[in-house]
Amino acid sequence: MKWESLSDFFAMGGYGLYVWGSYLVAMICIIGEVVLIRGRKRTLYKHLGQKRRSILRGEK
Amino acid sequence: MTINWFKYASPASFYFLAGRMVPYFATLAIIFLVVGLYIGFFVAPTDFQQGEAYRIIFIHVPAAWMSMFLYVIMAFWAGVGLAFNTRLSSMVASAIAPTGAMFAFLALWTGAWWGKPMWGTWWVWDARLTSELILFFLYIGFMSLQAAIDDPKRADKAGAVIALVGVVNVPIIYFSVQWWNTLHQGASVSLVQSPKMATAMLSGMLIMTLAAWMYSIVMILTRTRLIILERERHTAWVSELKEGVLE
Known about the structure:
The complex is a heterodimer of chains A (60) and B (247).
Chain A: H1 6-11, H2 16-56
Chain B: H1 11-43, H2 57-84, H3 87-119, H4 127-148, H5 152-166, H6 169-179, H7 199-231, H8 236-240
Helix pairs in contact in B: 1-7, 2-3, 2-4, 2-5, 2-7, 3-4, 3-5, 3-7, 4-5, 4-6
C-alpha cells in the first residue's frame, strides 16, 4: 500500500484541497445530473399518468 | 438475409432497445469507475514533479476528452437530423448536450484546481483554456436556444446550425497547445508518439475515460427515451404503454 495511513491518504502529499476539491465537484456534478434526469422522468410520468386516467374516465 | 437498418431509426423501436441496453452500460460504468479509481489512487505512483496533485488527471483528461467527443457526436446527429429530417437523430443531439456541458464544466473546474497549485493561478486566458470555455458556452447556447423555441422541429433546426458552426472549435481546442504558446502542457497521449507517462498512470486515465464513456451512454440513452416520450406523447404507441411498462 502506498499510503501510510488514512490521514496520509486525505492529505494527498499536501495537495488534498486541490485533489479532493476536484473529485468532490465531479461527484456532485454526476449525482446532480442523475437527480435532474430522475426529476424530469417523474414529471413526465405524472403527466402521462394524468392523461391516461382522463382518457379512462372518458374525457378527451 | 436483409436487415432492416431503419427499424431502430423509429423512435418507438429505439425507445425499447435503449431501455434494454441501459442496465448493461450502467454496470460497465460502475466497474470501470471502481477499477479506474483504484488504479488512480492505489497503483499509480507519485509524480516526480507534481507529487500527488497530478491525480486530478484521472478526471481532468477524461472530462476534457468527453466534452470534445460528445460535441462532435452531437453536431453529427444534429446535422443528420437537419439534412434528412430524421426525428430520432435530432432527439439524440438534444440528449447529448447536457452531459457534454457537464463534462466541459468539469474539465474547466478540475483544470482550475490543478492550475492553482501547479501554475499559481486558477485561470489564464490562454488558447487551450479559452477554447474549452467557448466549448462550454456552445453547449449552453445550444441548450438555451432549443429551450427558447416552442416548436420542436424549429428548435432542432436552430440547434443544428449552432452545433455545426461550433464544431470548428473542437480542432482548435485539440491543436491549441501546438499552434500557440500556452501555459497548458502539450498532449500526454497521442496517436503518433508513445505516451509520455508511467503505464499505471496511463491505464488509470484510459479506464476512467471508458467509465466516462459508459456513463455518457447511460445518460444519453435515458435522456433520449424521455425526449421521445415527451415529444410523442400524443401518438398511439405511447398511450398504449401500460402504466408499469413505461420502464
